[in-house]
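Appendix B, example 12.
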Amino acid sequence: MDLASKILEMLAEGNGLKASQMAKQLNVDRKQINATLYGPLPPCCGPSPGERFVGDA
């Protein structure tokens, strides 16, 4: 499973995690998470007012 798929799976759980929390759980650098969040993910995913990413998918 690629990183984007793992992130989408985490977002689908609805926990409202920060990029640093996702990075820790996936054992990758926060910069990789942010690059994926602000890059190839579909527009249904975006930061909530508290800068936590949420998924509508």
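The domain at 3-55 is CATH 1.10.10 (Arc Repressor Mutant, subunit A). The chain has a mean pLDDT of 81.
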